[in-house]
Amino acid sequence: MTPLLRIEGLVVEGRPPSGMWIQTVNGVSVDVAPGEVVALIGESGAGKTTVALGALGYTRPGTRFKAGRVFLEDREILGLTPRERRDLRGKDVAYVAQSAQAALNPAIPIGEQIAESLILHGIASGKEAMKRSVALLDLLDLPDPESLAHRYPHQASGGQQQRIMMAMAMACQPKLLVLDEPTTALDVTTQIEVLKAIKDVIRERGTAALYVSHDLSVVAQIADRILVLNQGAVVEEGGTGEILARPQKEYTRTLLGAVKPKPSRDVAVSDWNPAEGQKPILTVKGIDATYVNPGMFQTVDREHHVLHDVELDVFPREVLAVVGESGSGKSTLARVIAGLHPPLGGEIALDGTVLPPHSRQRTKEQLRRIQIIFQSPDQSLNPERRIDDAIGRPLELYFGMRGSEKQDRIAELLEMVGLDPDYAGRFPAELSGGQRQRVSIARAFAAKPDIILCDEVLSSLDTVVAARVLDLMRELREKHQVAYVFISHDLSTVASIADRVAVMYAGRIVDAGLTKEVFSPPHHPYTQLLINSVPALRQGWLEDVIATREASAGMASNVMLHDPACPFRVRCPLVIEGKCGSEPPPRRDMGQHHVVYCQHTESELAEHQRLLD
Amino acid sequence: MFKLIAKRLFLGLITLLAISVIVFIGTEILPGDVAQAVLGQAATPETLAALRATLGLNEPAYVRYFIWLGKFLTGDLGVALTNGMPLDRIIGQRLTNTIYLALYAAVVALPLALALGMLSAAWPEGTFDRIVSSVTVFFISVPEFVIALILVLIFAVELGWFPSINPRPRWSDFFPTLGAMVLPMLTLVLTVLAHIIRMTRAAVLDVLKQAYIEMALLKGVSKSRIILKHAIPNALGPIVNVIALNLGYLISGVVIVEVVFSYPGLGRLMVDSVVFRDVPQIQVVAMVFCAFYVSLNILADIGAIMANPRLRYAK
Amino acid sequence: MSQTTAAAPTQRKRSKRARPRPDFWAWLGISIVLTGIFLAIFGPYIAPYQVGELVPGASQFLPPSSETLLGTDVLGRDVFTRLLYGARLTIGIALVATVLGFVLGMAVGFSAAEIRGRYDDFVTWLIDVFLSFPPILLALIDIASLSSDLWVLIGTIAIIHSSRVARIGRSVAMNIAALEFVEVARARGEGLVSILVREIWPSTIRPLAVEFGLRMTYSILFLSSLSFLGLGIQPPDADWGSMVKENLNGLQTGAYLSVLAPALAIAILTVGVNLIVDWLGSQSGRSISEELTK
Q: Per-residue pLDDT tens for B261-274?
């Protein structure tokens, strides 16, 4: 059978603004049969998006096709005229971008953007096109499609925007869909709905798909075949089951190895327990915070409360993880502790002494003992300053180090995080993402702190790189006996490093305790939902999850931040009508330092909850 | 959206109030005895005292301010010091003339400039773009009075096609009057045109860098349609701001142009008032100018708000 | 990544900053500007006469000769001399006013971006008030009250610049202040000045350099316009705008040079600055618009 898409020996070159042409894709060949879903797996920079865009005959500015051919059915598309290429884009081959927010035009109503493809390719016009747009929105399970079609993209949520992109892509019933990391930017609980929607639509229409991703677990749910790419070349290819069970190449095995198992009682790594009578080094009590700082013309708005009565303890030398999805307030909490975001109420105490809310009001010692590392390797280091400047500043500030003493210490710190001391004289732009995060870690350790706040420090890194950085962090904690407050949305990572976990939802802590206690029932229904939403590295997991009641209750609506009662009730599979909506959920002590805020008692929860594996 | 607009209007009013304070301070309080400046050589202690009393200069500053503000708001604009004529009549006539001139220039310049700017952005670094770019660099580098002089030299002195001065425009003869005003209009147009073209080009290019434009390419949308339907609606906000910014150039241009061409407009009146130190006239003319300026800016802001769907429909 | 060098332990390799490469047009602009600055500093030493001196034995509006390179003006003074003296005033005033305006504007704009809150709201409103004043009006009022003294001119132009620079400085600084490395500095307890200077300022240099150039051109044009109106530099001092005004009558008798020379000088200098500004502004990456031309 002739393949629907055949890419033969594709070679693509790219050129940095002032440099020479270098090959980014070195002779890649891909076949996609009609109705087949083929996944392109690899880390960032592997060239997967470039190859996928090749299927549309498109190269990004600054890149060009050097060699190779691309056949769509039996037409060679790289040799087509621009007009012919325009004809097939959107009609025979359609693209779904990674970030719907960026890819949808903010000035054109949703329905019109979908209808445009139909009108452009002469399939329908005017009213008929709009009718079909609405039908497409409905096909993708979007609420109230009639009025949604007349709204603008910014009025829809992230998950909805992604499905709108799907609708737009499917409008002309293309034979091939190119999906570029469509769920990467979404929350875990939202990811399920979107994956389901994609899979349903593809199956129903018999569309073939080229699915680009770095997430093997996600790909396992949807792909028939997998191609592994590294540095612009195909490393291995085969059926999904084959690759997952019997990877042949070293690189594939590394990739698989870096995927963490789903969190559960058995997987939770730590056996740690706070010693009897040990006092926490940091106590957080009754913290309320809002989104905006009140200015001249703004009053504090109840709507914008980001944190509600948050209470936490951090014990010396432990790893306390704070997990939640977007809107949970976890990052804000970190910034409140660091003194970057003064809270509206509540207090934070370090070793018993209350800390002033703003970092400028704190003493040098207080500041030294709490350090923070941020998420983005691109933004955490001042691009205009060299590495030794970045690491040297805390040394100067806290210890008054200068000259050769300072340079020596900088070299020590760089070695400690696994970097060559010669990097001290470089600029951040010369380092890779993983290396920059290591520098940020070195900078934090330079102050010899007691607590390090880690705000999603691994989230922007490739899986393999992230795994290595995580190992480094574990090692450093052992050596230097610091406590980590580890903020993350990734439960699997958390399970492998955290001693205790606090789960946040809508600015509140809903579940807190030892990791192995929190990650197994009985626990808060939201924790249950989170854990069940993490894709497992096996085929068929998606269908299993959808079949259960929990997942269907997970259809996200907007998180209500100002709710006086339990904000999770609109998604909760165990909701008690009347009760959950009228009073704040009481605190339940489940023993072993495990605390849950829920209307149900421990035994009720134990009865209803079961983890999928 | 309406909340935003109301807020903007309110801010505009407060701004005007603040401006009135500045104008007042600038003319009546800063050093330099007003009475002395007005009377000049003819000053004797008696005449100085008399003039001071007439001008109410003996009251404390804030009292004088409120008296002045009150009169202004109730329409009592007073009389000019130099010739004693009622200011509302003088200003009314001059304002009309200036508005016609500005509108004339705007109507010619705006469509042309926006079109040229968008075309330049459509084929960046192409031949058309480079030519337009070089020409506009020239025109934004040359002061208005030089452009005016060159135009006068070529079209009035050498070729004799248009008159070089315009002492009394007669609006009843509309079209001949427009014909006589070609040179001052052209001067204004050429400067403002260059600025708007460059800024429009930059605004459109900026929009073209966005991810949703790439998405449109991948949907198979043609280039002309991308620019017209995908890019321009997003560039409207910035373009409205561009127009607002150029109002500033237009107003300073009007002053120079009216002086060079002896055109009886508000700009020339302003310059004359300053030369003759006619304080009441300066104050009123300044306030009228600023009121216009502020109102046009408010309109531009409102336009930018309405052009942006994210502001029109908050979530 | 480059290799480690076998260097002595105390000698570390330091990376160099990227150096931008000017193209032909940029070099043209740079040479024009450098010439202008040179003339501004050394002009009066090169000039054959004094600024108000009447050329002995000459009458008005003479064509160029061996004694007078560009001829004489309305009063019989050497045009070339006055042009050189004019360079000093025009460029000097423009430069000082722009720098002053810039420093003030940046201080206000940067601090507003970092401090936020009520201070920022107030500053933004204040900037808006000043921006609502047509610049020429502000200048006219100032000169009416205070006369055309050199420092009044400089001060007025500086104030006009400061509000515009404050607005753009604030916007640029706010973008940078939101980045993580600035947050890290705040979390370290760094003071306001330290954050503005160490963290924010270095990343603002490029966009603000463009703005500086634009403000310079505005200073030059604005000053000449004021002088042309008779409200700027007063005789016998010369700046290029007042020279145009003085010699207007010459146009009727065909003596164009005394008017064109200063006018061209203004144009050339401003074009030079604009060329540099354009080049600086184009120092960004490629765009989708290139793809559209395929």
A: 888 888 888 888 88
Which of A58, A85, A155 shows the shortest C-beta gap to B313?
A155
Length of chain C (residues): 294
The residue ranking higher by pLDDT, B281 or C197, is C197
Q: How far is A342 from chain B (nearest CA, A)?
A: 27
Contact between A512 and A503 (Cβ < 8 Å):
yes
> pTM of the entire structure?
0.84
Q: Look at A192-206, B29-43, B147-161, B198-212 and tell me which has the smallest mean pLDDT.
A: B29-43
For the CA atoms of A514, A520, A521, A527, the dihedral, rounded to the nearest 10 degrees, stands at 80
Tens of pLDDT along A455-472? 999 988 888 899 999 999
Q: Which residues of C touch B259 (CB under 8 A)?
A: 229
Task: Single out the residue of A234, A323, A310, A236 nearest to residue A518, CA to CA.
Answer: A323
pLDDT, greater one: A398 or C280: A398
What span, in angstroms and rounded, lies between the C-alpha atoms of A575 and A564?
Answer: 16
Q: Touching check for A161 and chain B: CB below 8 Å?
A: no
- Please check whether residue A559 touches B, CB under 8 A: no
Q: Which residues of C touch A335 (CB under 8 A)?
A: 183
Chain centre to alpha carbon of residue C189: 37
Q: Count other Cβ atoms within 10 Å, centred on residue B28.
A: 21
Q: Does B308 touch chain A (CB under 8 A)?
A: yes
Which residue in this structure is represented by tokens 């440099």?
A19
CB-based contact B142 C267, cutoff 8 Å? yes
User: For residues A115 and A132, what is the distance between their CA atoms, to the nearest angstrom?
Assistant: 8
Q: Which residue has the tokens 């500041």?
A: A367
> Inter-chain contact A105–B216, Cβ cutoff 8 Å?
yes
Write the residue in B215, B220, B236 that is nearest to A87 by C-beta. Answer: B220
Q: Which residue of C has its CA nearest to A340?
A: C187
User: Which sign does the torsion angle of CA B150, B152, B158, B160 carry?
Assistant: positive
Of the candidates A296, A424, A430, which has its C-beta nearest C121's C-beta? A296
Q: 219-258 in B: which are within 8 Å (CB) of A? A: 219-222, 229-230, 233-234, 236
pLDDT tens string C221-238:
999 999 988 888 887 788
Question: Could you say which of C141, C146, C217 has the minimum Cβ distance to residue B23?
Answer: C141
What are the C-alpha distances in Å from C270 to residues A38, B79, C154?
A: 59, 42, 18
pLDDT at B13 over 80: yes
Q: Give the burial string for A517-531 (b: 16+ CB within 10 Å, else e).
A: bbbbbbbbbbbbbbb
Inter-chain CB proximity C17 and A426 less than 8 Å: no
Helix axes A525-533, A188-205, angle to 10 degrees: 50
Name every chain C residue with its beta carbon within 8 A of the beta carbon of B141.
217, 221, 266-267, 270-271, 273-274
List of E strands, A531-600: 587-589, 595-597
Please report the pLDDT score of residue A295 as a whole number: 44
Share of chain A above pLDDT 70, in %: 92
Over residues A74-121, the pLDDT tens digits come to 889 988 898 899 989 988 999 999 888 889 999 999 999 999 999 998
How many other CB atoms are found less than 10 A from the CB of residue B171? Answer: 10
Q: Which residues of A touch B309 (CB under 8 A)?
A: 106-107, 152, 154
The pLDDT of residue B40 is 63
| CB contact (8 A) between residue A102 and residue B210 | yes
Q: For chain A, what is the radius of gyration of the CA atoms?
A: 26
Q: Do C288 and B213 touch (CB under 8 A)?
A: yes
The answer to whether the beta carbons of residues A428 and A382 sit under 8 Å apart is: yes
Mean pLDDT computed over B272-301: 83
A559: pLDDT confidence band, cut at 50, 70 and 90? Answer: low
- Confidence grade of residue A252 (pLDDT, cut at 50, 70, 90): very high
Task: Name the helix (H) or strand (E) containing C92.
Answer: helix C79-115
